[in-house]
Amino acid sequence: MKIEIDDNKTVGQISHAFQKQWPNLKIDFFQHTHATDEASPKKELLDENLYLGSVRNLHNPGTILIKATDPIKDVEKRFEDNYGLHVKIFHKMGDNWIESTTTANRTIAEQNSISDEFNEPVDTEIEPYEPDVQ
User: What own/partner pairs with CB < 8 Å and gap ≥ 24 does 39-46 have?
Assistant: First the structure.
């Protein structure tokens, strides 16, 4: 997928475009960068209504290409290096969004698929017990 990056887009526009492509993943934007294996403090989470121009120090417009085969950590690094955007990718597990700190080596497609399998509804229909009649 391609996402256009420019100062007039909002954090939410980028997040929604990404999640539309991979519904079990999301990108959150933070005030500061953090190591791949380091959790990002929730208090540094940026509001989705903020314009990119107000949250980054590299103001070059461009297009970020995200392929299904890209490792999560590489996508996060590309946002940082090319656009000065501090992002973390999260995956959905049930009702929770988990930061991909320990799964950052997985590809986008792998993590989306694993989350999809985890989130599949479980067949809870139980057949009634019928004792053997002798």
Answer: 39/99, 39/101, 40/86, 40/88, 40/99, 46/11
